[in-house]
Specification:
heterodimer; A: 484 residues; B: 178 residues; Alpha-Beta Plaits; 2 domains; four-stranded antiparallel beta sheet; 5 helices; 4 strands; 16% strand
């Protein structure tokens, strides 16, 4: 008999008196029910923002990148800031799915589905920018090594920009496949409960005929572990490669070996903050507080605190090395950041990223839902400013003072960014109503070890055999009622 | 195609299921299939299923990916049209190799992951428009179904199944498949 033992000191990861059937019903409810007024209001706002962004993108492609605020000195600004910001956010999803699986952290089960959805939707946003920032986006396929009539003229495999193409494509496709494979048993659950013929048809299609045979589950678990093992170095490599877009250049503030670990830590930092933002709202709206518990939010706050501290240490290291190296260009780069015309952005970044996560040392604050939500927004704002500071302040004043100039975004820069936020929320809101947002089959595997009811039974010395069924829970509840 | 008789026994708890599977195997009954709503730890071993080789296939596909990456970049950057890019050594793959590592890594992961997943889907017979084959729709909710072959020992088997805690039993005639 499988032992469902879990140490009594661990707090339950599924609260309430849940049977396996309860898990099914709770997760299926948002999908089977109708969207309420709140959903429609938020969806309309997101859709409007998305449409505005689409308009701005069409304007950009139709007229040219000149409609942005870029100039010869500052050749990258909001476009690449947004690209790195979105890719960074995506990394938390894979980390939760993959790394926490490898570390056998059971708290991942309730949040990995939504975190992975966030990853895919973020990386879609990120992928827009390399394409629209090209002078001739209709030639975007030229980044692929396809034989052609120009010689063949090949792509440059020494370039980090090309490494990005391969890295982001691999990351998006592997994340998608990892997410989809995990979804098959949960789509099957909805399919088998579906009464309306259209719903049944759609979920039959989406579930690929999943039947839950023992051999299929055996392969499923092995595939999940292998994908997790592949996705983990993928997360690290993708954001390292993104950091190489800057680190392999020569300008002060960019050309530094600290970028790979600094960027990866920053990505996890901002990603976990975005997961918190999304889940704090979703758990309330979809009535999933028994699965996405305060403990889950607290654990994510702890990760935010740790990675935020790593980012803080990286900032201090950069400052120290600039001073210690004696290189006047490097020193000026940081002096300019802190005291120059973009100092407001720099100090915004410092306060959002270095000071705010330190509040998470206090248990009262990191278990407060309101405060966690507030900090998650602050962190994401701070991380946007971090990429803006790195990119724009280093470019606008590098080695040649006669080239020094300022950068200002146009309404198109801003519009496209807001458009990607809109697109992201459109996708996430649609996902929340059509996909099972919790990996319910996985949660069922930890129900007897980490569920509140089962921990109580186990600690009172009873056997757990037979306790997962609906009848067992109903009997227990009836007994309790009759005792009162 | 010989038609054979199978009993579908339903359980509502994974621990009860495990006990039942072990008892059935001990009594030398042929378990055709077990359908569960989630992976039950130890079930594959209890059923005597061979371990899966899918992780090995992933490793092999990764090797294929690495080979493709190396051959591709060697052809493109060293053989076909070598160029002086920032003074990097364009005459020898090994000397320029550090620059090629990111793509070698990404293509290894790409091939390993995607080909493994395709193999998984094909081996487990899953694709869009495939019909579900679980006999009872409750097996994706909270029921566990054991399909046991039955010959002349129907009564005895039914008795054993009831003893192990089955909540329902159905006798099914089916064409021998797989």
């Amino acid at each position: 008999m499988a032992s469902h033992y879990e140490a009594p000191i661990r707090r339950p990861l599924v609260t309430g008196e849940k049977s396996y059937h309860d898990v099914t019903v709770d997760v299926a409810r948002p999908v089977e029910g109708k969207a309420n007024k709140q959903w429609w209001i938020v969806f309309s706002i997101a859709l409007t923002a998305f449409m505005w962004g689409v308009g701005c993108i069409i304007y950009t492609i139709g007229t040219g990148v000149g409609v942005w605020g870029l100039n010869k000195t500052v050749g990258w600004a909001w476009d690449i800031t947004n690209f790195v910001w979105w890719v960074g956010i995506g990394h938390a999803g894979t980390l939760i799915s993959a790394v926490l699986l490898l570390f056998r952290q059971k708290w991942r089960m309730a949040i990995n589905r939504s975190a992975e959805a966030m990853t895919i939707f973020s990386v879609i946003q990120a992928g827009l920018f390399p394409i629209i920032h090209m002078g001739r986006p209709w030639l975007a396929y030229w980044v692929l090594p396809i034989p052609n009539q120009f010689g063949s003229l090949w792509v440059n495999f020494n370039s980090p920009l090309l490494w990005d193409v391969f890295a982001i494509s691999t990351y998006l496709s592997v994340s998608l496949v990892f997410w989809w494979t995990g979804l098959l048993p949960d789509f099957a659950m909805i399919r088998d409960r579906a009464v309306k013929p259209f719903q049944k048809k759609i979920y039959s299609l989406l579930s690929f005929g999943w039947s839950g045979r023992a051999k299929d589950w055996q392969r499923f678990e092995e595939v999940s572990l292998v994908l997790a093992g592949l996705a983990t170095p993928l997360v690290l490599s993708v954001h390292t490669i993104v950091s190489f877009d800057f680190a392999t250049s020569v300008i002060p503030g960019w050309h530094t070996t600290i970028f790979p670990p600094y960027f990866v830590a920053g990505a996890i930092f901002s990603g976990f903050a975005m997961v918190n933002t999304l889940l704090i709202i979703m758990r309330k709206v979809c009535h999933l507080e028994d699965y996405i518990t305060v403990q889950h939010i607290e654990l994510m706050n702890i990760v935010i605190m740790i990675t935020g501290s790593i980012v803080g240490v990286a900032y201090i290291t950069e400052l120290f090395i600039a001073w210690y190296s004696g290189v006047e260009y490097e020193q000026y780069a940081f002096l300019n950041r802190a005291t120059g015309p973009y100092a407001w952005a720099y100090w915004c970044m410092m306060s959002c990223n270095v000071f705010s996560p330190q509040f998470m040392w206090f248990k009262k604050l990191r278990t407060s839902i309101m405060f966690s939500f507030f900090i998650s927004i602050v962190v994401n704002i701070g991380m946007w400013f971090e990429r803006f500071v790195i990119i724009v302040t280093s470019l606008h004043r590098d080695y040649l003072p006669s080239s020094w100039t300022m950068f200002s975004p146009t309404f198109v820069d801003i519009g496209i960014f807001i458009g990607t936020i809109g697109f992201f929320f459109v996708l996430f809101l649609l996902y929340a109503r059509t996909f099972p947002v919790i990996a319910q089959a996985e949660v069922k595997t930890i129900l007897k070890s980490s569920g509140q009811r089962y921990k109580r039974l186990r600690e009172s010395g009873e056997s757990l055999v037979g306790t997962g069924s609906v009848d067992a829970v109903a009997t227990d509840l009836a007994k309790k009622k009759s005792k009162k | 195609m010989k038609s054979s008789k199978v009993i579908h026994a339903l359980y509502t708890d994974d621990d009860v299921l495990m006990g039942a599977v072990k008892k059935l195997r001990a009594a030398k009954h042929a378990i055709e299939e077990v359908y569960t709503p989630f992976p039950v730890h130890g079930l594959d071993k209890a059923m005597g299923l061979a371990p899966t080789r899918i992780a090995i296939t992933s490793f092999l596909y990764g090797c294929v990916g690495l080979t493709v990456a190396i051959l591709m970049m060697n052809f493109i950057m060293i053989q076909d049209w070598p160029q002086d890019i920032g003074g990097k050594p364009s005459f020898s793959y090994l000397e320029n190799m550090p620059a090629f590592v990111p793509i070698m890594f990404e293509m290894t992961v790409f091939f390993a992951a995607h080909l493994m997943v395709i193999t998984f889907y094909l081996r487990s017979r899953m694709w869009p428009f495939k019909n579900a084959e679980n006999p009872d729709p409750r097996t994706t909710d909270d029921h566990f179904l054991v399909a046991v072959s039955v010959g002349d020992n129907e009564k005895e088997l039914k008795k054993l199944l009831t003893e192990t805690g089955a909540v329902e039993m159905h006798l099914v005639e089916q064409e021998a498949s797989h």
